[in-house]
Amino acid sequence: MSNIQQAKDKLRKEISALKKKFTSDELYNRSQEVLSVLELTGIFQESKTIFIYNSLDDEVQTFDFIRKWSAGKDFYLPVIEKDEMVFRRCTTNTCFQQSAFGIMEPVGDNYTDYKKVDLIIIPGVAFDRKMNRMGRGKAYYDRFLPKLKAPRLGICFEFQLFDGIPADKNDVKMDYIVSENELIW
Ligand SMILES: Nc1nc2c(c(=O)[nH]1)N(C=O)[C@@H](CNc1ccc(C(=O)N[C@@H](CCC(=O)O)C(=O)O)cc1)CN2
Ligand SMILES: Nc1ncnc2c1ncn2[C@@H]1O[C@H](COP(=O)(O)OP(=O)(O)OP(=O)(O)O)[C@@H](O)[C@H]1O
């Protein structure tokens, strides 16, 4: 394993320990703060077709947010299919199926009209103020993002945001990062 991969794994463990200090209620409340910053941004307000994610317990919680905005915006969620990430529509009628990672993935057709996407909202384990992002170590987003021209907006809790994190040439940079306390672009 390279030095960068080792440094990333170490940081993943550190973040995982930090997250354990918060109850799920605290993470839910912080999620609401992060999302209220997101709602203030022009890029979110102006976007209609949005790629987002269905959160795991330790990520910014998106479930209520998607429902709240689903009348005015079209949301799509990731599905892992043959080790590739694809996106499917999420409406109030969508059926979900639990993936191997424990994520609820929409059932239905894959959406491939990538040029219509206005914004992609991306989870991460850690981000830095130079716009680097580190994920869960499977490179799904790093492989997917070059297919899309839409602005990339990372969302995270403040304790996941650093001045610098380990990054290499494959890591795709964010255009915006939003936390409870910061909006970076
Ligand atoms: N909410 C959400 N959905 C997503 C992602 C994500 O990061 N968050 N993905 C972004 O890629 C894709 C799924 N990728 C995932 C990759 C790893 C793990 C995971 O739980 N990994 C374990 C460690 C597994 C291991 O032992 O290697 C972990 O992080 O604890 C989950 C999802 C698509 N959907
Ligand atoms: N675009 C790519 N194509 C092929 N392999 C890649 C690509 N990006 C990263 N990898 C490899 O995949 C492995 C995991 O990468 P890395 O730790 O950067 O993932 P990550 O940032 O956590 O993933 P993700 O973007 O899915 O959240 C590394 O071995 C890395 O070299």
TrEMBL record:
InterPro entries referenced in this protein's UniProt entry, alphabetically: FTHF_cligase, FTHF_cligase-like_sf, NagB/RpiA_transferase-like
Swiss-Prot/TrEMBL cofactor(s): Mg(2+)
Keyword Transcription regulation part of the UniProt annotation: no
Catalytic reaction(s) noted: (6S)-5-formyl-5,6,7,8-tetrahydrofolate + ATP = (6R)-5,10-methenyltetrahydrofolate + ADP + phosphate
EC top class named in words: ligase
Keyword Magnesium: yes
Enzyme Commission number, as recorded: 6.3.3.2
GO molecular function, one term: 5-formyltetrahydrofolate cyclo-ligase activity
SUPFAM superfamilies recorded: NagB/RpiA/CoA transferase-like (SSF100950)
Keywords: ATP-binding, Ligase, Magnesium, Metal-binding, Nucleotide-binding
A Pfam family this chain is assigned to: 5-FTHF_cyc-lig
Protein family (similarity comment): Belongs to the 5-formyltetrahydrofolate cyclo-ligase family.
Protein name (database record): 5-formyltetrahydrofolate cyclo-ligase
Native organism taxonomy: Bacteria, Pseudomonadati, Bacteroidota, Bacteroidia, Bacteroidales
